[in-house]
């Protein structure tokens, strides 16, 4: 059977998981320049893919005209006009499964999420590094006939900063650190009172740029900006494309097990991560980072870690497991590698 010439890639959410497709697609397109790739995802994520060679973008309006089974049928009809000949489902959820039913006759490969080994990890049956999510994505393309070598990645050059974005660099003589202190679940976050100590110490020698989203986050980060010199918050001020340009000019990102870590990693930045009840062994560490860049909670104090893959399940008393990583360890690690 001939190899596909045009692959449709399905990944609808979440931000970090979509970002993790980027280095895989960059390697795939570079190593197989004859291949045409179309990514189907939400419009919000378009900036992730705009600089990838041979990669097109198609908007899935899953809350509008593509909502529900009928909407997915409409989406399938639109996509068929693109004349793809294979489907890489790197999401493998109900929506993508329904959509694939309408692609009868096309070769389809879906993501192997490794549920059994992840269950063994979170239940305490085993404690070892599992295959990374990036490699799981690459395996989908290998099953379609395209090997993807992730061992020697390339990254885009930082984009020029506009005057608006340059204003977030307080001192032109300092290196710049991004800090994204929030995550989907509090159990994945470093306690804010400890993070403030980290920010205070780093701001003496570096520009610190704070990233966040919701109204409460904006308020908290703005308070930190006013409290310390060389600290700026971008929360609520930039669109995704502008954030990516700013991140591309960072010297280092400090983040939780969250989307910001993957956005920085896909741009080739150094990323220090702090882990609470989740653990990098599950395969969700940011791309191409040394293992010692992941600062994990103390398992002598919290032996049941990882308590879940996504941080949504944990025993009582584990809410602030990340606090077992000391402020001094974080600051010294950053200073050692920046």
TrEMBL record:
<keyword id="KW-0808">Transferase</keyword>
<dbReference type="GO" id="GO:0008713">
    <property type="term" value="F:ADP-heptose-lipopolysaccharide heptosyltransferase activity"/>
</dbReference>
<dbReference type="InterPro" id="IPR051199">
    <property type="entry name" value="LPS_LOS_Heptosyltrfase"/>
</dbReference>
<dbReference type="InterPro" id="IPR002201">
    <property type="entry name" value="Glyco_trans_9"/>
</dbReference>
<keyword id="KW-0328">Glycosyltransferase</keyword>
<protein>
    <submittedName>
        <fullName>ADP-heptose:LPS heptosyltransferase</fullName>
    </submittedName>
</protein>
<dbReference type="GO" id="GO:0009244">
    <property type="term" value="P:lipopolysaccharide core region biosynthetic process"/>
</dbReference>
<dbReference type="GO" id="GO:0005829">
    <property type="term" value="C:cytosol"/>
</dbReference>
<dbReference type="Pfam" id="PF01075">
    <property type="entry name" value="Glyco_transf_9"/>
</dbReference>
């Amino acid at each position: 059977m001939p190899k596909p010439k045009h692959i449709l890639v399905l990944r609808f959410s979440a931000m970090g998981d979509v970002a993790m497709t980027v280095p895989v697609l960059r390697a795939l397109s570079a190593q197989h320049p004859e291949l045409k790739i179309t990514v189907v995802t939400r419009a919000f994520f378009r900036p992730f893919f705009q600089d990838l060679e041979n990669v097109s973008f198609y908007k899935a309006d899953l809350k509008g005209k593509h909502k529900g089974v009928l909407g997915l049928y409409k989406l399938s009809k639109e996509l068929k006009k693109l004349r793809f000949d294979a489907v890489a489902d790197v999401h493998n959820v109900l929506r993508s499964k329904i959509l694939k039913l309408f692609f009868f006759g096309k070769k389809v490969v879906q993501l192997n999420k490794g549920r059994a080994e992840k269950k063994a990890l979170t239940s305490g049956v085993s404690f070892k590094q599992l295959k990374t999510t990036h490699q799981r994505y690459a395996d989908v393309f290998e099953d379609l006939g395209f090997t993807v070598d992730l061992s020697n990645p390339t990254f885009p050059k930082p984009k020029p900063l506009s005057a608006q974005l340059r204003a977030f660099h307080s001192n032109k003589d300092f290196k710049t650190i991004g800090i994204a202190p929030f995550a989907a679940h509090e159990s994945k976050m470093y306690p804010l009172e400890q993070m403030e100590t980290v920010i205070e110490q780093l701001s003496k020698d570096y520009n610190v740029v704070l990233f966040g989203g919701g109204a409460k986050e904006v308020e908290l980060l703005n308070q930190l900006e006013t409290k310390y010199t060389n600290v700026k918050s971008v929360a609520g001020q930039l669109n995704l494309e502008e954030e990516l340009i700013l991140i591309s000019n960072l010297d280092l990102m400090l983040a939780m097990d969250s989307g910001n870590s993957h956005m920085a990693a896909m741009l080739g930045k150094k990323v220090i991560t702090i882990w609470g009840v989740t653990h990098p062994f599950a395969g969700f560490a940011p791309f191409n980072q040394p293992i010692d860049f992941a600062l994990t909670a103390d398992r002598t104090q919290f032996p049941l870690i990882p308590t879940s893959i996504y941080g949504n399940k944990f025993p009582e008393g584990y809410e602030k497991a990340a606090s077992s990583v000391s402020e001094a360890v974080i600051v010294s690690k950053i200073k050692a590698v920046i």
